Every structure is written in C-alpha cells, then in structure tokens.
C-alpha cells in the first residue's frame, strides 16, 4: 500500500495534475479570503471555508479521474493485480495519495487564518473544527471520484461523471426540498428500490432465481414494515436521499460545532465508496 | 511446479479457453504456440491471477490461485503482452516501485536491481523516462520487471514481438539462460522460436490444446509429408512428367521461372518416403541437372491445419 501511495503521490507532481489542483484551489480560496476577510476586515474565516466548497466540483474530478482509469488503459493494472498486493491495499494507497495532495493544499491555506491572527483575535478552535469538516468533506468527495474512476478506462468520462455525481450531491438539499413526503410515494419509492437492487443482482450474477428471491424478500420487508408501522413511509424518499447529503452535515462544522456524528458519517461514507471500488475491481476479474 | 487443472474461461457465450489441462515441471521451459485469439494470453492471465477462470483452477508450487493468491503471485514473474509500464517514471524509479510492491527486502533491493539491469542490458537508460524509450527497450524493461525478486516461475507473453532480429536473438538466449534457474512458460506465434528455446511445446487452437510434445517429436510428426522445392534446368513439361512418374511422389507443381532455361518445382512426397535420391537419379539420367533442392518448412498455418485435422482423425 505504501509503495502505491508513494508512486501515486509522485505521479501527481510529475504531471501537471497536482499543480493544477493546488493552483486552482489556492487561487479560489485566496480570492474568497481577500474578498470576505481582508477587504471587509472581517475575522470570520469560517465563511470562507463554507463558500469555497463549490471548488470541489471542479478540482476533485481533476484529482481522481486518472487514479484507476489510467491503470486499466495503460494495462499497468496487470502489474498491480499480479503482484502480491491486495486490491484493498492498492485502492487505499491511491485514495490516501489523493487525500494527501488535498491535505497539503489545505495546510497551505492555513496561512490565511494565521494572517488574520495578526490583525486581531480569531476563533482558533472553531477554525480547526471547520478545517476538520472541510477535510472530511473533501475526502468523501475524493472517494466518490476514485470509485467512478474504477468504472471506466477513459479519464475524460471519469472526470465528467464525477462532476455530475458531485453536482447531484451539491443540489441534493435543494432537490430534497421539492420532493413529495406522502406515504404512497414513499411506498412506491421503496418498491422501486427493491426492483433496482434485484435488477442489479441479476445483471451482475445473471442468476434469475437469486434476484427473484431477493425481490420477493424485499417486497416482503416493505409489506412487513407497512403493517408494523405505517408512518415509516411518510417522508421515506427524503430520509433516504438525506443519507447522501454530505453538505447538510457540513453545516454543523461551519456553525463552529465539532460533534462526533458527522465525523463518523463522513468516514463511513468514504469507507463505503472505497469498498465499492474494491468490489468493482475484483468483479471485473471475474467477468 | 505449475498445474493447470481443467481451466475454462467464458466471455458471455464465447469460450476463450476450453477445459485446458497441463502441468509444467520445475526447470522446464514450456512453449505456448497458437494463432491469434487461440487463448494464450487468457490462459496466462489466469495462471498469474490477473483474471479468474470460469471453471477449474491453477496451482503453483502446490498453492491454489483461488485459495492463496498471494503465495502464488509471490512465485510468479509476469511479462504481459503489453509491458505494464508507467510512462511518467524513469526506468530506475519503475524497477524500484516494482521491487516495493513485490515486497523485496530493502537490503537486497539495490543489488538485485543492478543485477537485473545488467542482465537485460538497460543499465545505460536507467535515468530515462520510460515514455521516451524505444519499443525494444520498453520490452526489456517489461522483462526486467518480471525478473525482480527472482521468482521461481516466469510467464512471458510473446517476449520477442516487435524486436529487431539482433534483439530477438539476444532475448532468446537470455530466456534460455534464465531457464536454468526458472520454470518458464512462454507464448509465441513463431514455431522456430519456440523449438529453439523450449523443451516442450503446447499447441493451442480455439481455446483447446491440440498437441503437446517436445519440439523434435512435433517436427518429426509434422514432417510426415516431405515437401521439396527444387530448381531444374530443363523444359517444364518433360521435367514435371518425369518427376510425377517417380514412386512416392504425391504431387508436383511448377512454381514459375525465376532463372532463364530453368523451372522451379514444388514436390510433395507420400508420408514417410524419401524421394530425394530417386529424384536425383531420374533427373540426371534425363540430363536435367538439379540446381538446388531443399525441403520446405511447414508454415504455422499448415501445422495448425495438420494438427487440428489429425486430432479429428484420432477422435
Ligand atoms: N475481455 C474480453 N472480453 C471478451 N472476449 C475476450 C476478452 N479477452 C479475450 N477475449 C477473447 O478470447 C479469445 C482468446 O484471446 P487471447 O487474447 O487469449 O488470444 P491469444 O492467443 O493471446 O491471441 P494473440 O496471439 O492475438 O495474442 C479471443 O477470441 C478474444 O477475442
Ligand atoms: Mg495474446
């Protein structure tokens, strides 16, 4: 894992990718810092951290598009997968390399609050908390990008799809606001989920029997829940989509609150996508 | 050392490898011969654990690729069809990285890297970026990569493809040299190459093994129908008539005139009959001198044709 991590980190700075990422990130954060802190003489640095989250939409695809797709295109995955490394080790090595580049960039932006501290007192712990949240948010986005990069051997497709996925998460809270919360649509949605899962199982295993059993069990669970607790389906769609709402968790950090549950949430979120990435790579070898 | 047990690989409906069984003993160099799409690369990818078989399994040194993949992978150096090179690294950085992922001891790493770079003669390009190397040198770096950690088993997929004749000879003798301490499987399209290096040859066609033998036995078996190419000074009609009358000649055909006053002829003899002497006497009696006579090697296509039709007759 360490070898992959080191190679990947070097590769970022052997190509323009690392510099583009850092440069763009520092430029945008610098502009926002100047506008909202320096020019207005405001000590509220957290507002910078919360307004620049949109940079992720652009820079995360740059950071992650190459990670797995380039390996399959150049056939270098053959080297990695026939070496004694585990797939998990490979994926983690790549993930941490991307996260490391991001972390280094964040450390540079720490200069901004330090500059601020010369002009007056700043809320140090709130800013540290804000950074932790910002870092975890970025790391979660990177895990999505890594996952998408493992699905294709074309960097451009990986970048575009990652952008789309992040954009979706970006506007998710806004979508949630307009979604019906009544019981019927909740049930319909739950059934659609069951069908989706069964279809996914069918397309990966080509086993109609297993997917039919899964569908039946799934419908059974939906019916069971319905009879046990009708109210469960009120607002079910919203509650499901909220699982993916990375940004709403981020708000607590921006209010200067450092609590455990969003931290656990982000780490779990990244772990799930890393796990999926491993599965995709393992799966491809079986097909 | 290597046991391939009933390995089958299906891609949807298409069967790329069809119930292949063979074993390779320690220290053996096995040649894997077959036309495009025969399933050579697929079989090698399965042995090295890059892809998994639909059915069957592979054991290396007693370890099962499905149950203990790491143990198997530790023992194999693989040079795939396309060398898996990182274009943005120098040769040295690359080999260093490969040593790391193969978990080579830090202490011995430097030394073994030097040895390998010497062996495949890439020491003088060690600080060049891989993307700037010529095809032949990329191929060598690919081979070097497989040698790192001196794994007991080497799997080489068309190691000489795309090299110039001098490099081909060099790489072949290198492989022969390596065969002294490694068990090697090597694939190729070229029969003479395989027979020059390998102790045993497996011919694979459409995913099935159609022949498995030593190169000598194989060529003995295959040279059954002797074919001779000759140039005779004399009129085409008479010469052909004379030759066709000789006992044991199955067929004779004119191949055109390359030299004025002569004719080139391709003679096909019956199985196990040597017609060279009768040919000589018959033509010299008629005072049509033979300017040259040599046996014609079967092309790979003809061998496949022959082997596959033979199989059908047997079964
Ligand atoms: N990923 C894949 N998906 C579908 N079919 C495949 C895949 N990989 C290989 N095949 C098919 O499997 C068969 C065997 O291919 P393979 O690459 O093993 O042949 P080969 O003997 O190495 O040929 P060559 O001499 O051209 O390298 C071919 O018909 C090929 O089209
Ligand atoms: Mg091949």
Task: Present the secondary structure layout.
The complex is a heterodimer of chains A (287) and B (315).
Chain A: H1 2-14, H2 16-38, H3 46-51, H4 55-64, H5 66-73, H6 77-81, H7 87-109, H8 111-119, H9 124-149, H10 155-177, H11 183-205, H12 208-228, H13 236-242, H14 246-254, H15 260-286
Helix pairs in contact in A: 1-2, 1-7, 2-4, 2-7, 4-9, 4-10, 7-9, 7-15, 9-10, 9-14, 9-15, 10-13, 11-12
Chain B: E1 2-11, E2 14-24, E3 29-33, H1 40-47, E4 55-60, E5 63-64, H2 69-74, E6 76-79, H3 91-101, H4 106-119, H5 135-147, E7 153-157, H6 165-178, E8 183-188, H7 191-197, E9 200-205, E10 208-213, H8 215-222, E11 225-233, H9 236-245, E12 249-254, E13 262-271, H10 276-285, E14 290-295, H11 300-314
Helix pairs in contact in B: 3-4
Bound molecules: adenosine-5'-triphosphate and magnesium ion.
The site of magnesium ion has 4 residues of chain B, from helix 1.
Report on the architecture of this protein.
The complex is a heterodimer of chains A (287) and B (315). Chain A is an all-alpha fold and 287 residues long. Chain A folds into two domains: 2-177 and 244-286, no CATH class; 183-234. Chain A contains 15 helices and no strands. Chain A has helices at residues 2-14, 16-38, 46-51, 55-64, 66-73, 77-81, 87-109, 111-119, 124-149, 155-177, 183-205, 208-228, 236-242, 246-254, 260-286. Chain B has 315 residues and is of the alpha/beta class. Chain B has two domains: 2-220, Rossmann fold (3-Layer(aba) Sandwich), CATH 3.40.50.300; 222-295, Alpha-Beta Plaits. Chain B has helices at residues 40-47, 69-74, 91-101, 106-119, 135-147, 165-178, 191-197, 215-222, 236-245, 276-285, 300-314; strands spanning 2-11, 14-24, 29-33, 55-60, 63-64, 76-79, 153-157, 183-188, 200-205, 208-213, 225-233, 249-254, 262-271, 290-295. In chain B, the strands form three sheets. A six-stranded mixed beta sheet of chain B has the order 6-7-8-3-9-10, sandwiched between helices. In chain B, strand 9 and strand 10 form a beta hairpin. In chain B, helix 3 (91-101) packs across helix 4. The radius of gyration of chain B is 24 Å and the shape is elongated. The interface between A and B is medium-sized, with 25 and 28 residues. Bound molecules: adenosine-5'-triphosphate (ATP) and magnesium ion. Adenosine-5'-triphosphate is lined by residues 11, 14, 16, 34, 36-42, 81 of chain B.
